[in-house]
Specification:
The chain has 89 residues and is mainly α. 81% of the residues lie in helices and 0% in strands.
């Protein structure tokens, strides 16, 4: 398993989203308004989406680029991996 320079930032984003999720649960349990809850859910969804996009772009920029430049895997394998990961964007 490799760690990239973007991973600490991704962890930070996900921990922030985790905090928001806990707040949303508390809001639901307290009977807060749907608009407030929907707003917070949107913020969590956006944070997770941005973390995912950062991770995928980092994988393409580093892992797949390295595989192509260094020849650590075949072109077919690299293309297959590229297609596989981009379906999550």
């Amino acid at each position: 398993m490799t760690t990239h320079t973007s991973h600490p930032d991704i962890v930070k984003r996900l921990k922030r989203a985790e905090g928001h999720l806990k707040s949303i649960i508390t809001m639901l349990e307290a009977g807060r308004g749907c608009l407030d809850i929907a707003q917070q859910l949107q913020a969590v969804e956006s944070a997770v989406g941005n973390a995912k996009k950062t991770l995928i772009h980092d994988h393409i920029d580093h892992c797949l680029e390295h595989a192509v430049r260094e020849g650590t895997q075949s072109t077919d394998e690299t293309i297959h991996e590229f297609k596989a990961i981009t379906k999550y964007l």
